[in-house]
From TrEMBL:
Keyword vocabulary terms for this entry: Cell membrane, Cell projection, Cilium, Cilium biogenesis/degradation, Cytoplasm, Cytoskeleton, Membrane, Protein transport, Transport
Gene Ontology, cellular component aspect: BBSome; centriolar satellite; ciliary basal body; ciliary membrane
Keyword Cytoplasm listed: yes
The BBSome complex member BBS5 PH domain, residue ranges: 28-82, 158-212
Gene Ontology molecular function, alphabetical: phosphatidylinositol-3-phosphate binding
Annotated organism of origin: Bison bison bison
Protein name from the UniProt record: Bardet-Biedl syndrome 5 protein homolog
Subcellular location: Cell projection, Cilium membrane; Cytoplasm, Cytoskeleton, Microtubule organizing center, Centrosome, Centriolar satellite
Amino acid sequence: MSVLDALWEDRDVRFDVSSQQMKTRPGEVLIDCLDSVEDTKGNNGDRGRLLVTNLRIVWHSLALPRVNLSIGYNCILNITTRTANSKLRGQTEALYVLTKCNSTRFEFIFTNLVPGSPRLYTSLIAVHRAYETSKMYRDFKLRSALIQNKQLRLLPQENVYNKINGVWNLSSDQGNLGTFFITNVRIVWHANMNDSFNVSIPYLQIRSIKIRDSKFGLALVIESSQQSGGYVLGFKIDPVEKLQESVKEINSLHKVYSANPIFGVDYEMEEKPQPLEALTVKQIQDDVEIDSDDHTDAFVQQDREPVFSEELGLAIEKLKDGFTLQGLWEVMN
């Protein structure tokens, strides 16, 4: 089974997936995380978190994480910005994502709840563009611009492990003589007489690699995934020992790739969000001594001893010298 047969993250739209499906798969990398994003069309008024990976975008409600979305980049038809009506922000600019999955169209509207922050638009649009421009890592290609001056045009994260001359492509009755390149992400063959007659087979698309008998003798047979068309390609490599070594090498590289695929979406945020630990400020104890005196208020005066007032018929604080009850009543009146 090819890696692609188990890969759904970039080519599917799913709702309310399990916590296991929300986790990143091997080769999937978290690029950006926005903690205040509203799914304005599906969950208006619900604050959520948007995760941007190299394969998809994932949104989930902060209050109920089981309410979520997973949108693969391969399903996205268009990304635009328009005005939307958000319960949390009112009339505001939002990100419209139009998708198509299994002949069904879905439209999603995401609103950044942080006023004045363009990060939602810049990161998602840029990562989707990086996905679109790196399809050579993931797609089966025929007759592409692969060769320049008889050398393979390498992808940014690609390394050539072996170059085999004199390899026959058995797609026609008489065969075509060409050159084989074995790299860490794909297998490439091109005809020696015509560079444009070529094929690029990413490990992501390879279903099986075997040695089979043909009318030309023993041959390397590569079967591609159903998503790529289910091609069966035959290559003649002489002598047989070299054929066996090549098959062993390809199977080994395919196994390494399957454990940690290289999807080719190379994008890094210029300003990565800081982790919570970096944003937490340690509280510092103020260097203040507290006076243990009974009087903690500087404006409280010393209480005076009580005396009996014959005029009022009850006990009152002793008046200060020069003050009389009659004088105090006159002040109040």
